[in-house]
Amino acid sequence: MTRRAWLLNLDAEDEVFRRQTYPGPFASLAARPELVGRLWSLVPEGDVLVIDDRTRADGLEGRAWCPTPRAITALMRAGARPPPAPPIDVLAEALSRAICVRAGLTLDAALFTLEAQTAVTRLAEPVDGGRWLVRRSWGFAGRGRLVVPFGAQTPQVLAFLARAAREGGLLIEPWLERTMDCGLHGFLHPDGTLVEGEPCLSEVNDGGVWLGSRRAGSDDLRAAERQALTVSLRQAASVLRELGWFGPFGVDGFRYRRDGEERFNPRCEINARYSMGWAVGMGDRRPDLEPHTGG
Question: What pLDDT is stored for residue 295 in this prediction?
Fold first, then answer.
């Protein structure tokens, strides 16, 4: 039986975008050990979970939640063979929400900007529902976001905008009343071949934190929504392929209510890494478990 060594650096974006203050690739799982049990479908039985510098994984092929430089170094120190990984500049571009612009923004009035003043101007505009959702260019587990009533220019809002602009930009979208969250996952081989999973429904709290995922049943998504998710995933794959990126990824979408009608947004997020529901959506389609090329 082939065994692998896994390092679940769930806070990989912190390493990529805040390198000077990053606590290391073991910190996130150490702070949330209960997540190990919720990721059982990702890590096959018998594989080794590298949780600290004392864990040994001699000779095993390495896998990382996101193959950042420090995650790869930690796997090698454990004795594992490092996984193939895109260059760090490609990884950073794939993890930034600016990539949503390249794939195509999907909501009316959505805007990505590098300028705090441009953000202030947009937030001063009236919007259906009266509130804007502002997200910095990177984040995970609901972090790095702020809900802003239109026209609000409080010190908290202005400070958030200024910091987010310095850290890579802001994605601004209308705040919408979600009635269902969903996702579709895939795997992009280094040669550009795409393997697609099946749609999932996601349970997400009001702060954007994932609580659980399950495969979507036949009645959970309308045919048009399934098709829109598939198109969205393939658009994301095309952009990632052009960057020279490869690995596990996914897109998040949601159904929402506006003017008394239910509508669908097929892409609110591109996750260029593993995500909490990835293994649920991929099921037995696990190209990530195949041996490294030449390994």
Answer: 42
Determine, yes or no, domain membership for 100: no
Q: CA-to-CA distance for 155 and 136, rounded, in angstroms?
A: 17
CA distances to 94, 240, 283 from 104, rounded to whole Å, are: 14, 13, 28
pTM, two decimals, is 0.93
Find the domain containing 114 and state its range.
108-174
Instruction: Compute CA distances 187 → 57, 69, 147, 167, whole Å.
Output: 25, 21, 32, 28
Whether 174 contacts 109, CB under 8 Å:
yes
Q: CB atoms < 10 A from the CB of 214, how many?
A: 13
The total number of structural domains that make up the chain: 3
Q: pLDDT for 158-216, tens place per residue?
A: 999 999 999 889 999 999 999 999 999 999 999 999 999 999 999 877 776 778 899 99
Q: From the CA atom positions of the chain, what is the Rg in Å? A: 19
Q: Which amino acid is at 129?
A: G
What are 155's two structure tokens?
A: 């010190």
CATH number at 212 reads 3.30.470.20
pLDDT tens for each residue of 17-45: 877 788 899 998 888 888 888 888 899 99
Q: Which residues contact 157 (CB under 8 A, 6 or more apart)?
A: 123, 146, 148
